[in-house]
Request: fold
Amino acid sequence: MVRRFVPLLLSALALPTFAADTIKLAITGPFTGGSAPMGASMRDGARLAISEINNAGGLQVGASKMKIEVVERDDEAKNERGALIAQELASMSGLSGVIGSVNTGVVLAGDRHLQERGTAKIITPAAGSASMTQWVGKAPELSIFRFAAHDGIQAAMVVEEAINRKFTKVAIFHDATNYGVSGRDDLQREIKKQGDKLQVVATEKFNIGDKDMTAQLLRAKSGGAQAILIWAIGPELAAVANGKAKMGLSAPLIGGWTLSMSNFIDNAGKNGDGALMPQTFIEEPITPKAKAFIEAYHKAYGVNRIPSAVSAAQGYDAVYIFAAAVQQAGSADTHKIKGALEDLKEPVRGVIAAWKHPYSKWDNKEVETHEAFRREQCVMGMVQDGKVVFAHDEDKQRLASLAKAP
Amino acid sequence: MTVSIVAQLVVSGALIGLVYALIAYGFQLTFATSKSINFGQGELVMVSAFFSLTLITLGLPYWLVVPCGLLFGAGLGLFVERAAVRLALQQKSEGWILLTIILGLFFFSVAENVWGRDDRPFPTPISQTAIQILGVDVTPVELSVAVGVFAIMGLIEVFKRQTLLGKAFEAVSADPDAGELMGISATNTVMLSYALSGIVAAVAGILVSPITTVGPTMASALILKAFSVAVVAGLESGFGVVIVGIFLGALESVASFTLGSGWREVPGLLLLILALAVRPTGIFGKAIIRKV
Reply:
């Protein structure tokens, strides 16, 4: 009985691996909790791209057409959950790639498992510098790519904005997470790099869940800060904006792209107006493709504002870049896809830009080889009446021309 | 450091401190009658806040939401008493410790599944625009916290002193066995204390939500501070929790300013250790003499 049963059982277990007529793509991120606007928007943007591809019949892989099958995992923005999910995905048979991660801590906890197995991953929209710099000098080959404007670019833009606005005294605010602390370091480095034109009158920290920012704001106020450079996520950013309004402190918030999160904008209300942040995509129909994307998103998910437009657009474009790599590799094998990502021949027309050779062969000393975004793809956004708009009008034309470029 | 900065720090800290005090007061109410504490009190605060938010989104006016929220809180308190405390007390076991913690976890999971894990704003008709009083910026919402805390605690204290039911409450607190001999049902009095404690939790939830936003973890930071306040003040004195709550809140705020924001919690924790080392029954507590 057992002898007859065991082979049967084995063949039943082995069966799914033969049925590889789909490309298995994992999407991970926090779909619930304080980071959810980013995670869920990224997922929904990616889903939109995937359903477009599947509705058109799938991807041309070698001789056959293959559809994309999605594996979704909610990491709840928790480092330990992120590590578990990465382990599961690393050992999942037939997985072609991973797109996702919002929180730098989650990336640091999980990505080494994927790297060990050589599973291709495109990080989006996590922006913390450490996500990529952790591999410098350590990995001769790297299967981890990033599709987000990293904090190095963002911090440079934030400092530049403060200098352009003729500020001389600023306060740095950050939360106690990996993201906040590495953002603080980036800001300090950039201030030095851009000629020490800004004097930091206060460097203040707060924890996730803190609502009373009076002490931190008073330190900024008594130091005479003209702007608050800030690295944190939605709920605490809102607490700072609300505290600022309470104390009549007019210094604007300039900070990481998280200032565009819906849970900042909603919880801060009118106190959030005027906050400035680097963006890679703004929910304005500046190109026909952007218009189509925004309308499709609103229709598919029944909303009239994308919770995090940057995340949604990046999720969408990341899928198309991944799809282009699959077609170029002519295989569902993640190692071959990784190779194709490092040398994409055809430009990929995305909603953010036309991506021409976004990545190149991994150089152990240069993270830029696996970073898709440069300063030119980013603009300053500003919160106004519950929406993110272009802070500088001239950026509209610049972004639109990038999307048109061949 | 000018006087106005100190005043601003003390006032902002003290207002949050009053919320700690109100939650700690909820511990006191049940401890008085039954020598038991609901370790899931923070979850009652959170669930009541979510319930009230739901009523607001359904379109109920604020003045109707408040009493409904309070009734809901009372119901939750009674549920905790029946499900987690009563049998344990009858059997003179300490099972209520674990059971109230478990009920708290249960409420947490229910809230996550029913209302989701996101922090949501809590609309309130009270203005959020700051006004200046003697050079200190406060918002009417923050003042409403102070007014609400004093009002509910005052009402309960008057109730305990002036009404027959309240006197029964005091009698059972003093000596349950003697109370039973006088014809007072200890079980009913314990139920009453849990209902009151639930109401206090609901008041805390409704008052603090416009400031903290509503989410499953909204009370987890508050509850730890409330424990500190209850321990430092002792579990006997309502007046004591208010004083200690205000002091702890102000101390945190001042420490955060003078020592840096990373040191916010340290003086409060030192105070807690000191209080436990010097006066284990709390500053305002009475030593319990056990006659064997």
